[in-house]
Design goal:
The chain is of the alpha/beta class and 326 residues long. The chain is built from eleven helices and twelve strands.
Length: 326
């Protein structure tokens, strides 16, 4: 092996052009998905306190928002709904005129080229804030599956391009795949939140969607943070049930999980740069403690370097602007 002084690794770091020429990992606008929070009603544009520059919008406010997203060439949005009515079974989640169903139709009318991904989970729609049907003080896995399938089907019937189950019930991918196929939607992909951890990084999201559990927590169905091998089992199972894309969530404390998944499976891999990760960067940037642009690009590059193909991030619009000007 060639050694110093003949070998000088700094040669390829001397200028930006040289660094760019040999750069191994790249973040592209085409990698990004921008999450949107949709609140039932009219004329709503309300900033989320813990997530600066992120808003809740009512469906009638979406055309101008998604037109901007499309102009920035961000290929997809992920929709979360906040209904006016919540009940024990999350009935607003699968109502044909529910808030997400309205939002899908508004987006497709305004920007039909934009991919619409919908979150499939009951937590935003249930009065108790859990991701499934509660029976005897616990979330009942098997009673929840038909409702998740019904929710996914209603999104696709409204025009969704991809459905993304995030509930972490066993068997949900199979239930959704069978429901879609039975109705002739064999072409609709499923993006599974396959390794979703019970993380403290979700706090701002629960404020955004008004979906904090009213009792207990979600540790009986979301994954235990210390576990990696379990994540591989979850992903293997979801792929076997028909998942087309798999996801790891969150990212910063789970880059090792993303790498293990990438090394083990060939499926397209998404990673969700979640609300708490976003809020930490925003808070520090507002205090002048760090350079927001540099640190966001560094974080997203790390997610790509770990092996993700797709990054869901609240930074997406800013990143698109930055990448278009470099």
């Amino acid at each position: 092996m060639t050694a110093f002084p003949q070998l000088r690794l700094r040669r390829l770091r001397r200028t930006e052009s040289l660094r760019a020429l040999v750069r191994e990992s790249h973040v592209a606008i085409s990698d990004l998905v921008y999450p949107l929070f949709i609140e039932e009603g009219n004329g709503i544009k309300q900033e989320i306190t813990s997530m600066p520059d992120v808003f809740r919008f009512s469906p009638d406010q979406l055309p101008s928002q998604v037109e901007e997203i499309a102009r920035l060439k961000i290929p997809a949005v992920l929709l979360f709904g906040i209904p006016e009515h919540k009940d024990e079974v999350g009935s607003a989640a699968y109502h044909p005129k529910g808030v997400i169903q309205q939002a899908i139709q508004a987006i497709k009318k305004s920007t039909p080229e934009l991919l619409v991904v919908t979150d499939v989970c009951l937590c935003e729609y249930t009065s108790h804030g859990h991701c499934g049907i509660v029976a005897n003080g616990d979330v009942d896995n098997d009673q929840t599956l038909p409702l998740l399938a019904r929710m996914a089907l209603s999104h696709v019937e409204a025009g969704a391009d991809i459905v993304a189950p995030s509930d972490m019930m066993d068997g949900r991918v199979k239930a959704i795949r069978e429901a879609l196929d039975e109705k002739g939607f064999q072409h609709i992909p499923i993006l599974s939140y396959a390794a979703k951890y019970a993380s403290a990084f979700y706090g701002p999201f629960r404020e955004a969607t008004k979906s904090a559990p009213q009792f207990g927590d979600r540790r009986s169905y979301q994954m235990d943070p210390p576990n990696v091998r379990e994540a591989l089992r979850e992903i293997e199972q979801d792929i076997a049930e028909g998942a087309d894309i798999v996801m790891v969530k969150p990212t910063l404390a789970y880059l090792d999980v993303i790498r293990r998944v990438r090394d083990t499976f060939n499926h397209p891999l998404a990673a969700y740069n979640v609300s708490g990760e976003y809020a930490m960067v925003k808070a520090a940037a507002q205090q002048g403690w760090l350079d927001e642009r540099q640190i966001v690009l560094e974080i997203l590059t790390a997610i790509k370097r770990a092996g993700a193909d797709i990054i869901l991030t609240y930074h997406a619009k800013d990143v698109a602007r930055w990448l278009q000007t470099t």
